[in-house]
Amino acid sequence: MVSEKDSLNTQVENRLENLFGESETNSLVAAEGGDLEYYPFRILKSIVLSMDWEINDEVLSKFIEQIDGLKDTYKEDKILLLFLQILRSLGIYIKAKKGGAHPNAFKIVNSVFTRLEKVVLSKSLSEASKKKMLFAELSKFKELRGQIARSDSDRAKKKQAAKEIVKKKKIPEAGQVPAMVHKKEDVQVGFTAPGMQVYEGKDLFMNAVEDIKNLIRSEFAVLREDLKLLKR
Amino acid sequence: MSYTLSEEQLSEIEEILQHDLIDLGVHCVFLIDMAGNIIANHDNGESNHDIYSLAALAAGNFGAVTAMAKIIGEGEFSLLFHKGEKENIHFSKVLSDYLLIIIFGNDISLGFLRLKVADAVEKTKRILGSPDAE
Amino acid sequence: MAFINMKKKEVQVKIVYYGPGRGGKTSNLEYIYKKFRERIQSEMITVKTHGDRTLFFDFLPFDIGKISGYDVKIQLYTVPGQVKYNATRRLVLRGVDGIVFVADSMVVRKDKNVLSIKNLEENLSDYKKSISKIPLVLQYNKIDLAEQGIPVLSFEEMEKDLNSVLKAPSFSASAITGVNVVQTMKKIIAMTIASIKQELK
After folding, report:
1. Percentage helix, strand, coil, to 5, in chain C?
2. What DSSP line would sit under B53-84, residue for residue?
3. Which residue range is the domain that position A154 belongs to?
4. Residues of chain A with pLDDT under 50
5. 45-74 in C: which are within 8 Å (CB) of B?
6. Domain count of chain C?
7. Is the model's pTM score more than 0.80?
């Protein structure tokens, strides 16, 4: 009797320890996988993951909508607010540019979200560490803005250059006949192995190619004759 | 029977492959017809694949998968993508006769690639559908 | 359909070896590949079953140099011959420019040859192509079996079964030993290129 009660207690204790233990990893697991309703970033996370597979207006609208909702929820938390603001700006940029968006924009969405999740889920992170993470993402974001500005100006220059070329091309290139280059019709062959077998192979193939060419000429002659007959 | 594309069309297509895709960081890109012929191809200078065999297999693969789609009542699948450990392949149909095949690493997300590919496909369609194509 | 690349001055030509299962289509390509191994730089691609039967196709590409100023690239394909792989055969036939029909000379395969060439005709018509207009060479394979005492149909009997209307060029052959394999290939390449040569001008 006593031993049964003991083993039951042990089981219960172990179970309680597993579910409500004090270690950080356990608390993370509980937050992510345990009680889903309590994780306010669940939907945003699934949207970010789905963007790995497909990016379209619908997904991006949902993305921005979710962020707007979360901004409201976390309006008192300056750090989270800023993370969300970065994500929102990125979302609007990608939605506007789509395929024309800078490739790094997508990488930064993922990295900002990953850091945001860490800040949200980790109970033991200090304010200083959170700020450090935020600043790291902010500087990536600023760098991206610089990259976008640079690539936009490069594109503008290319467009201008292309317009100049088009203007020049419109002048007809009169009197230019492409040079007639008579090349050998032989197939290029390069052998390094000096064995007899190799030479046989080479000759055989060269002969085969010559035969094919002769055959083509005779086939074409036959076709021409057939055509003449048809025309009568 | 045969068909041809003009020098200008081919140059424009190659420009799209280079500028919209290779410059993005994909490893290799080629445009083929459904018979397995290579229309245009570009790579990042580090790829050394046998693209003729890839083209034949890609055309066969796409044909087979499309036939499977029809059997299950679909017109065609909107995503044909094979994921490897380091290299991945993405297929896109261009009009009804061509396929754009892209080989890329894990540094590019599929979602983003699909966006870029959609743009590239639209541009390529305009070139292939132009009066020069016989 | 052959693709002519005006920029690279290159033509790609697709030739398919068609015929009943176990007739010798793959053996034809294997012979060509082995014979000209030094020259054909690419690998031969085969997609086979565990039982060594063609499942999807065999593929062997090679260049034959310049003709009329164009680099000609030949692509040889085989199809799986077994009846159940008809959908696959149709796929491989897409865009075909020339065909070698590899028939099996064994007496016991007589009906299979006829069924197979009818199947070819049907599949071609799906692509609005006519078996009587497309470049076609018939190969009556496995003549080497006669020496082993296995009953084979004569050239005349094969012609009567398969070629009485088409009147296409035909060869008796042995893909295993190589008799007329290369000749068949040369003939079909020549015929195919001649048929598109107009557009090379």
Report:
1. 40, 30, 30
2. HHHHHHHHHHHHHHHHHHHTT-S--S-EEEE-
3. 40-169
4. 21-34, 36, 173-200
5. 45, 47, 56-57, 59, 61, 73
6. 1
7. no
